[in-house]
Design brief:
Length: 343
């Protein structure tokens, strides 16, 4: 009885590709670049360097961009493209800053072609640009065979942005200092806890928000007590304090009205409604659906709406995009998020 032989052409190609990758290293990489929310954000003082001290519970969420990296034959320049008008593609972009930083720290000379497929709105308080920078550092390290540790990447990243080090946590962290002192908090909140992110077309200027911040009028709540309460009992309206809400609501009065309307329409769907970062995103924890008025009222026809859930990662792996992710852009594309401003 003769034995039937089958030729697996695709398998042979995959085997050849694996062999080439082993010999020359990776040449392409697609990575998910998720954003974050601040479950609480306390501003605890002004620093001599002009920044503010903060204490905040940061958590990665499932809304994110996709970044495609390819090795460039060039040894002198990176090339960045994006799907959103108005996002800078020169050295002012945090992705390029991150790649320059990695080369400076490691002495490597690899340059890249990068395409940024942007879903996270800019000027939103969601750390989209900071996440892009962290993702670029992770990618550059993969292309170089992992010569830097995650701790190295985390430490270096603080040189170009205060929120970037957080993304080298496992996804949930208590952050202090300018935000660069990161304490991992594992298994803090249920990953399947739904939320909705609602952002008006207008952005909040971080510099303007900080300019209007009055430290003598901030919350007196102990941030460690807030963290303990969340650890023991989960998220509630009482613990979701953001000291940047009052100044942000002065900068963008429509944002205050939006939060008030969401809270007034809440029939128990949301356990908490609060602003993330310096705005202008309002987060509703407990339901993936926005209130009906967001769809029904013409005043809100251009808002960005996305469902989301909490997201974490494993050690030595980057964040992975969940299977389902719903995001709707407003009609206005906003300019790119910049590195933190010293005021």
């Amino acid at each position: 009885m003769s034995k039937k032989l089958t030729y697996d052409a695709q398998g042979k190609l995959n085997q050849l590709a694996d062999q080439i990758d082993q010999e020359v290293g990776i040449t392409r990489l697609n990575l998910f670049s998720p954003c974050k929310i601040n479950v609480f954000l306390r501003m605890t003082g002004k620093r001599p360097d002009g920044y503010h001290d903060l204490a905040s519970l940061f958590h990665v969420v499932s809304l994110g961009d996709t970044i495609k990296f390819s090795l460039s034959p060039s040894k002198s320049i990176d090339r960045l493209s994006t799907n959103v008008a108005g996002v800078p593609v020169d050295e002012s972009n945090l992705i390029i800053k991150a790649l320059n930083l990695y080369r400076k720290k490691t002495g490597t000379d690899k340059h890249f072609w990068i395409h940024l497929d942007k879903k996270v709105p800019t000027g939103a308080g969601l750390g989209g640009g900071s996440s892009n920078a962290a993702t670029a550092l992770w990618a550059a390290n993969q292309f170089s065979g992992g010569i830097a540790s995650e701790k190295d990447l985390q430490e270096w990243s603080g040189e170009i942005g205060s929120d970037i080090p957080f993304f080298f946590s496992r996804g949930a962290a208590y952050c202090t200092g300018r935000g660069e002192i990161v304490q991992d908090i594992p298994d803090l909140l249920p990953i399947n806890l739904p939320m909705v992110l609602i952002k008006p077309p207008e952005a909040c200027s971080t510099a303007e928000v900080y300019k209007r911040l009055r430290l003598d009028q901030t919350s007196k709540a102990d941030p460690l007590a807030l963290l303990e309460e969340i650890t023991q009992n989960g998220i509630s309206q009482d613990v979701c304090i953001n000291d940047l809400e009052p100044p942000a609501f002065e900068v963008l009065r429509s944002l205050k009205r939006l939060k008030k309307r969401i809270m007034a329409s809440n029939r128990g769907e949301y356990s908490a409604v609060f602003m993330s970062g310096s705005g202008s995103t309002i987060v509703g924890i407990g339901s993936p659906d926005p209130p009906a008025f967001v769809y029904d009222d013409d005043d809100y026809k251009d808002v960005f709406v996305s469902e989301a859930c909490f997201l974490t990662r494993e050690e030595d792996e980057w964040y992975r995009e969940p299977i389902s992710s719903n995001a709707t852009f407003s009609k206005e594309d906003l300019p790119s998020e910049a590195a933190p401003v010293v005021d």
